[in-house]
Write a structure and sequence with these properties.
Layout (H helix, E strand, L loop, with lengths): L8 H8 L6 H13 L10 H10 L3 H6 L15 H13 L3 H27 L1 H13 L2 H6 L5 H21 L2 H18 L7 H11 L4 H28 L16 H15 L16 H14 L4 H9 L34 H4 L3 H11 L11 H22 L12 H21 L7 H17 L3 H4 L1 H20 L6 H27 L121 H10 L8 E2 L2 H11 L4 E2 L12 H9 L5 E4 L8 H9 L2 E2 L21 E4 L4
Parallel strand pairs: 1-2, 1-3
Antiparallel strand pairs: 3-5, 4-5
Helix pairs in contact: 2-6, 2-7, 3-5, 3-25, 5-6, 6-7, 6-9, 6-19, 7-19, 9-10, 10-12, 11-18, 17-19, 17-20, 18-19, 20-22, 20-23, 22-23
């Protein structure tokens, strides 16, 4: 800590041409957190892994990012990240780890980029602290250890930031174009989420560039035009291609990339209005009274005993926890209640907010004495950039109707930047001033320790009292001692400052390791002692919270050995929700037990199975297995079903058709053969009509259909026609009876055969 004040040019110059030895362990920490044991995740996020398997088979599938080898429907995101994953799988072979590797390397790259960005202006110690804070932000390695897009997205945006900073330093127009073009590339990774950084780019360039206003406006206008051109380039090509010559654009309602970008992957994330049907209109959200009425009716029709009903009413999921689009948007997937303090609520705070109080104190210190009209120092200009990144993104996550916990990685760079730059700035103020600025360091330490105690308190049953008390007590003691010893320039004070930083980073470091310690969830990644559940929040009350698929909600096909399933929940059959988990369905965003179900408290996936029933891709958690099929959701196949379909295939293009991607993905991964997800990702895409299906059957493209009763959405007419014109295959011919393997379709699923002449 005693070197933190040494930000002179000589130090920067001396470090410029040699490796920073302090950076080496930081990079090794990032590498460990991002790479260790990724080889145990055999399928990763099966939905995206199936797409890579398909993209390896033809350039047609590769270009369009087709979910299935038959080129029937695409995945719900643009292709750039999946192009990179496919290239990785081509080089290293098709494995779970080979599709995860690009994201893991991107996570490490983000740590290095942040070091470079912060070090140049704020000094080497600021760069080191920023890099370490980035590496230890729990959601960063949690996402980077999966094949989800966000880690690569953040790396790309940081690369664009480096180009922008270079454009300002060199006053060269080419770097401005490159920076904004890179945002266009990021748009083709996750669409409008990439534009979250635009306020920072515009504000910083206007404030920091020493050119005339006329040139600023001209340069930014041209760069923005280039960004938009790069952004829509792939979309224009796809939307201009005849629909019969390309896959259907998955998760769109009009078979359009632009609709997907600005609807499902855009404005709907803010509004939470992701409840759509296959028709052209949107259903209104249920009111609270309608919800209560629906629950009352379901409880009256349930065959469960009175004690089960009582327990269900007490469960968290009976308290109207709804998905976006429902009457009350209070935290589906543990994203908390919208409001100014949402990022401090449980479920989000433990993913990203560990250092937020320190960041707030750092912002105050870094902008102390700034005048609106300037002039501004380089530190103030770059601080303004990170603030313009932090605030709009924080506001979005505070009010957004629908997002997942792992989207919070977008906040990691500005938080880490302020943590690093602020640590140096507050330390300097602490040592050199005797006014209010000298109190910012102990104040930041004290409030940050207090927040961390609050974050950890729901997890006392998992981590014990000792670490919680340790952070609280040490934080208070160190803050008080530093306050008492102000302006005493000796080694003890330096060690106290270093110890305070260690205390504040200790529990984020532990949280960042939890996906390795407890296992992660590649579909809905999060960090924490329950990271394998993928749902965040405090540990469940399940017998084994590490193995419970959704924070206590049992995945189908797993027998818990406990007859009570009242704290679990089942999405209704036949509804649609474009923003849900693959294969899940909703009723205008609300998750509730299906009417007339005898197991009204249990959550089910496609197939609607009970605890002791099974489905094609049984999502079991096998703690004894050395390979995880998927974090939190295991993508297994029913081998008996696969054998039956393979044996009886008479040249059909598709091995079988099913309602949604969840049932199809594991079979695509295992066989590389086309499997038709008739309704796309969640089963709600209006892709098929009865006439189209008849034509496909007559041409010999598909013969077998596995229907689970879930994910109908816009394909109800198609499913009704299939049932009325098909022959049901006896379950004894295809359904597995092996309870240990937990394979086979659920009791609600049925295999049909249709042949038309």
């Amino acid at each position: 800590m005693k070197h933190m004040n040494s930000e002179v040019k000589e130090e920067r110059t001396s470090n410029k041409k040699r490796i920073d030895l302090f950076l080496v362990p930081i990079v090794l920490i990032a590498a460990f957190l991002n790479l260790f044991k990724i080889w145990t995740d055999e399928y990763a996020n099966a939905y995206y892994t199936a797409a890579v398997k398909s993209m390896l088979q033809s350039f047609h599938n590769f270009f369009y990012a087709s979910f299935d080898p038959g080129g029937y429907v695409t995945i719900d995101k643009p292709p750039v990240v999946f192009w990179i994953q496919t290239i990785s799988a081509k080089i290293f072979g098709f494995h779970g780890w080979s599709v995860i590797l690009p994201q893991a390397l991107a996570g490490i790259g983000s740590v290095l980029l942040l070091y470079v960005l912060i070090k140049r202006t704020f000094g080497v110690w600021a760069g080191r602290f920023a890099a370490l804070a980035m590496a230890l932000t729990p959601i960063v390695p949690a996402v980077s250890r999966t094949n989800n897009i966000d880690s690569m997205l953040v790396f790309t945006l940081l690369l664009a930031t480096w180009m922008l900073f270079r454009a300002v330093r060199t006053v060269k127009f080419g770097w401005v174009l490159a920076a904004f073009a890179m945002i266009g590339v990021a748009f083709n990774m996750k669409m409008l989420q990439a534009y979250m950084v635009l306020p920072a780019f515009y504000v910083f360039y206007v404030v920091a560039t020493k050119i005339t206003w006329k040139k600023k406006i001209a340069f930014l206008t041209t760069a923005t035009a280039l960004m938009l051109a790069v952004s829509v380039s792939w979309a224009v090509v796809v939307d201009s291609t005849s629909a019969d010559k390309r896959p259907y654009m998955g998760s769109s309602q009009t078979n359009s990339v632009l609709e997907l970008a600005f609807g499902y992957n855009g404005i709907n994330r803010l509004t939470g209005n992701t409840s759509v049907t296959g028709s052209s209109h949107k259903q209104p959200p249920q009111t609270e009274q309608q919800t209560a009425s629906s629950e009352t009716k379901q409880n009256s029709n349930s065959s469960a005993d009175s004690s089960q009903s009582s327990n269900q009413r007490k469960s968290s999921f009976s308290q109207k926890m709804q998905a976006p689009g429902g009457g009350n948007q209070n935290g589906m997937f543990n994203t908390g209640n919208p409001g100014p303090f949402r990022l401090f609520q449980k479920g989000l705070s433990d993913q990203i907010s560990w250092l937020l109080p320190f960041v707030i104190f750092s912002i105050v210190g870094l902008f102390a004495g700034v005048k609106f009209k300037g002039p501004y120092t380089a530190k103030q200009k770059e601080s303004l950039f990170w603030l313009a990144w932090l605030l709009p993104v924080a506001v979005f996550f505070s009010i957004a109707g629908f997002f997942h916990q792992y989207y919070l990685i977008m906040l990691a760079p500005p938080i880490a930047a302020f943590a690093g730059a602020g640590a140096v700035a507050l330390w300097s103020m602490y040592k050199q001033h005797n006014d209010w600025k000298s109190w910012l360091l102990p104040g930041g330490i004290l409030t940050t320790a207090a927040l961390q105690v609050y974050i950890m308190s729901p997890y006392v049953s998992s981590i014990g009292v000792a670490p919680i008390a340790g952070v609280g007590v040490l934080g208070v003691i160190l803050a008080l001692v530093l306050a008492i010893r102000k302006q005493r320039k000796n080694s003890l004070t330096n060690y106290l400052g270093a110890a305070a930083m260690v205390v504040l980073l200790a529990m984020p470091a532990y949280w960042a390791m939890t996906p390795i310690i407890y296992g992660g969830n590649s579909m809905l990644p999060s960090a924490g002692p329950d990271s394998s559940s993928g749902m965040g929040g405090p540990p469940s009350t399940a017998t084994n919270s590490k193995q419970s698929g959704f924070n206590g909600m049992q995945p189908p096909g797993i027998s818990s050995g406990n007859s009570s399933s009242n704290n679990q929940m089942q999405p209704p059959s036949g509804s649609s929700n474009g923003g849900q988990m693959p294969g899940g369905s909703s009723n205008n965003g609300q998750m509730q037990p299906p009417s007339g179900s005898s197991n009204s408290g249990q959550m089910q996936m496609p197939g609607g199975s009970s605890n002791n029933s099974q489905m094609p891709n049984s999502f079991s958690s096998k703690s004894s297995s050395s390979k995880r099929k998927s974090g939190g959701m295991n993508a297994e196949v029913n081998q008996k079903l696969l054998n039956y379909l393979t044996k009886n295939n008479t040249g059909e293009k598709y091995l079988f058709a099913t309602t949604d991607s969840t049932s199809a993905a594991p079979y695509i991964i295992k066989t590389g053969k086309p499997v038709m997800a008739m309704g796309g990702f969640s089963g709600s895409d209006p892709i098929l009509t009865v006439s189209k299906l008849k034509a496909m059957i007559k041409k010999g493209e598909v013969k077998y259909f596995y229907l689970s009763g879930m994910g109908k959405g816009g394909q109800s007419d198609v499913i009704t026609w299939i049932k009325e014109n098909s022959k049901e295959i006896p379950s004894s011919k295809w359904q597995s009876t092996s309870s240990s393997a937990q394979q086979g379709p659920s009791g609600n699923g049925t295999l049909y055969e249709i042949t038309l002449k």
